Amino acid sequence: VEVSIRRGSGNYWDGAAFASASEVWNAATLGGGTWSFAFASSDFPADGDYTVRVRATDDVANAETPSSRTFTVDTTDPSATFDFPAAGASYADAGWNAGCTASGFCGTHSDGAGSGVAAVEISIRRVTGGLYWDGAAFSSGVESFHPATLGGGDWSYGFDAADFPADGQYTVHVRATDDAGNTETGPARTFRIDTAPPSSTVTFPGPGATVNAA
């Protein structure tokens, strides 16, 4: 059994590198009814598409028409970014609910020329107390990630202002995973929920006071 490996529409593996302009057939190892051809991930020079072809020859020189498979090598992390909330911003209920098309968290995702984004997840932490959103309340002592909704190059996670139990700071962390299983560390943003009106008082004049010009 012999194997050829081609990088994209370019050169073939010559046993040491993708350096041959013509197809090179490399001998596979046989064992019982199986074959194998050792090829470490470090042998791929870069991410991208590769095509492997295999053919068998019997003891009287009958050779089959090769079969082939094309696959993608993707070792690069995808990326998710925030559109809302803004880092360090403060929001009342109306401002929060108007932040995304669907109230909550939203942003964009990408994977460059990789295998494509499979999932975006977020965690939400209440800074006071340090607990994470578990899908129903801020009651988890460990970081808990929740799947966002994907659409085109966008992601969103519905979270109404009423879901915040109290005013204060919250931190949201987002991460993307691609179809090859690469998961980024992902960015985080801290923001403040502030629904309480401020207050003002009069220092002067005193209540019921009578004053002259001086």
Descriptive notes:
With 214 residues, this protein is mainly β. Helix content is 2%, strand content 43%. The protein has one helix at residues 93-97; strands spanning 2-7, 12-13, 18-20, 26-27, 29-31, 34-36, 48-55, 67-73, 79-84, 90-91, 104-110, 117-126, 132-133, 138-140, 146-147, 149-151, 154-158, 168-178, 188-193. It has a five-stranded mixed beta sheet with strand order 10-19-18-12-15. The chain is rod-shaped, with a radius of gyration of 30 Å. The N and C termini lie far apart (107 Å).
Weakly predicted, low-confidence segments: none
What gyration radius follows from the Cα positions, in whole Å?
A: 30 Å
Spatial ordering of strands, largest sheet: 10-19-18-12-15
The major pleated sheet works out as:
5 strands, mixed
Average pLDDT taken over every residue: 96
Structural class: mainly beta
Measured between the Cα atoms of the first and last residue, the distance is 107 Å
- Strand percentage: 35-45%
Number of helices: 1
What are the main properties of this structure?
214 residues, mainly beta, five-stranded mixed β-sheet, 2% helix
How is this structure best summarized?
This protein is 2% helix and 43% strand.
Secondary structure blueprint with pairings:
Elements: E1 2-7, E2 12-13, E3 18-20, E4 26-27, E5 29-31, E6 34-36, E7 48-55, E8 67-73, E9 79-84, E10 90-91, H1 93-97, E11 104-110, E12 117-126, E13 132-133, E14 138-140, E15 146-147, E16 149-151, E17 154-158, E18 168-178, E19 188-193
